[in-house]
Design a protein that fits this description.
119 residues, 4-stranded antiparallel β-sheet, alpha+beta, 45% helix
């Protein structure tokens, strides 16, 4: 009999088994992420990239007309989206992870300073 440890995640539960880790989606957030993302994070990255290109174009048009506040806001948001896409290159939306694929596991305790959006 396998020993299983379960803990809650943002969109469901994580089942830690001796041979693999299984992420299950539960509730409204899990069902929505199943529809929107599925098992591939590339769709979200592509959406953010297209939105960032649109914002850079809007910032350029605003620069030509002389709107400083709109320029700063749209370029700042585009930069934020691009940095999110770059930082999420190593992330995965795969629900089953084999133990031999895991290189390192780190537990980071969440506090109010390193998580701007608490659960």
């Amino acid at each position: 009999m396998e020993t299983e440890k379960i803990f809650k995640t943002k969109s469901g539960f994580c089942h830690v088994l001796p041979a693999k880790i299984v992420l299950t989606r539960d509730g409204i957030v899990g069902n929505l992420s199943e529809i929107v993302v599925g098992n591939n994070i590339k769709r979200i990255q592509m959406t953010y990239s297209i939105l960032a290109v649109f914002l850079v174009y809007f910032a350029y048009k605003t620069y030509l007309t002389g709107g400083v506040i709109e320029l700063i806001l749209s370029f700042g948001l585009a930069s934020y989206l691009v940095s999110g896409v770059i930082n999420s290159q190593t992330l995965s939306a795969t629900p089953v992870i084999d133990r031999d694929k895991i290189k390192l596991v780190q537990f980071k305790k969440r506090n109010q300073w390193n998580n701007p959006f608490p659960l």
